Amino acid sequence: MHVVDLAQPMRTGMPQSPNHPPFRMVLERRHGDMVRADGGSASNEVIITGGHVGTHVDALAHVSHDGKLFAGKDFAELTIDTFAPYAGPAVLLDVAAAHGVATLPAGYEVTPDDLSAAAAGLTIEPGIVILIGTGWSRHWADATLFTGLHHGAPGPGAAGAAWLAAHRPAAVGGETIAFEHLPAGRGHALLPAHRILLVEHGINIVETMKLDTLLDTGVKDFTLILNPLPIVGATGAPVRPLALLPKATTP
Fold it and tell me: I need a labelling partner for 210 at 20 to 30 A (CA). Which of 47, 53, 66, 239 fits?
């Protein structure tokens, strides 16, 4: 069994949505600040982060529409600590490969036809996790491009989100900061995929995943472990998703 880490490394200054507080980590105590009688010393840090920074899971409490959350439930019923850890099958729909490219262009809308083409030969059972490969994690080092604020970012629009919801997955995930089609110059003005998935269908979203290594293997179905931090009352939390692949399919 080969494990592929699907989380982006968390560091101060990493790409993130402007709608959320930034990640910051500083060493509060350095080695030598306090030395024990036996010569031992310890270092530790202070971490400040929003729940939707880096690779993370959106709780169903994250988005409302016309004042309503999923199924009319109360906020506390839908926070991230109610997310049941997931260990089970997942499929990767490599839309970029379906177009013959490593990375989709900025601002590209992933359509139902794209998803159907990428799903050819796969069986998508209800209750599994569906990941969309756009290749966008290859741009992680370029924060200006990655955020999509100026040039946009590839992702599903309303029609693509409806296609995903119709397959009744346990969760969906992708490489971009927002699991959405972001047109050039529009930023996060409208987020219909969030409404359709979180509010209308109760499907959690995993964002800012590092899928480039997995895409390079060509593997399209695998076992996924998904277990966000159980932060009581939070609308999202960091996660380190792990894909479990046969050793024969290592990149």
Answer: 47
